[in-house]
Write a structure and sequence with these properties.
Number of helices: 3
Strand content: 25-35%
Largest sheet: 4 strands, antiparallel
CATH topology: Pantoate--beta-alanine Ligase, Chain: A,domain 2
Number of domains: 1
CATH superfamily: 7,8-dihydroneopterin aldolase (MptD)
Strand order of the largest sheet: 2-4-5-6
Distance between the termini: 19 Å
CATH architecture: 2-Layer Sandwich
Structural class: alpha+beta
Order of helices and strands: HHEHEEEEE
Shape: elongated
Number of strands: 6
Helix content: 25-40%
CATH class: Alpha Beta
Length: 126
C-alpha cells in the first residue's frame, strides 16, 4: 500500500525502484555511522546501544529489518574513573533490509581487514 505522501516523494527520484532502494539503504547506513560513532560504550551498555541503534533505524522509511552488533572483542576495561571508550566504525557490524514495492535490498557495514576500513556495501538485491 502506497500512501499519497510516498507517491509525491517518488516524483523527486529520477531513478528506478531498484536504484531508489539502494539509495535508501545507503542513507540508513550513513545515518548509523555518522550518528553513533563517538558514542561512549562499555560492556555494561553495549546491548542497550545495539538495540537503540536498531530501534532508531527501524522507524525510518522502507526499513524492514536491521541487526546491529558491536564487537565485544574491541571493548576494554576502564583504566580509571576518567577513562572511557567510544564507538568506532571498526566495531560495528550491521545488516539492513530495505523494501520498496517489489524490490528488496540487503546492505551491510562491517570492518574489512583487507581494506582496513569499515565498509558499507550492497549484499543482495532481490
Amino acid at each position: 500500500m502506497t500512501s499519497r505522501r510516498e507517491e509525491l516523494a517518488s516524483r523527486y527520484f529520477n531513478c528506478t525502484e531498484r536504484e531508489r532502494a539502494v539509495f535508501e539503504a545507503g542513507i540508513k547506513l550513513g545515518t548509523i555511522y555518522h550518528q553513533f560513532v563517538g558514542t561512549p560504550v562499555a560492556a555494561a551498555n553495549v546491548d542497550i546501544l545495539e538495540r537503540a541503534i536498531e530501534d532508531g533505524v527501524r522507524v525510518q522509511p522502507f526499513v524492514k529489518d536491521v541487526r546491529v552488533s558491536i564487537s565485544r572483542e574491541a571493548l576494554r576495561q576502564k583504566k580509571d574513573e576518567f577513562d572511557y571508550q567510544t564507538l568506532t566504525g571498526n566495531m560495528l557490524n550491521v545488516e539492513l533490509t530495505i523494501s520498496i514495492d517489489r524490490t528488496t535490498v540487503i546492505a551491510g557495514m562491517d570492518f574489512k581487514p583487507d581494506l582496513r576500513y569499515p565498509l558499507m556495501y550492497v549484499k543482495e538485491i532481490m
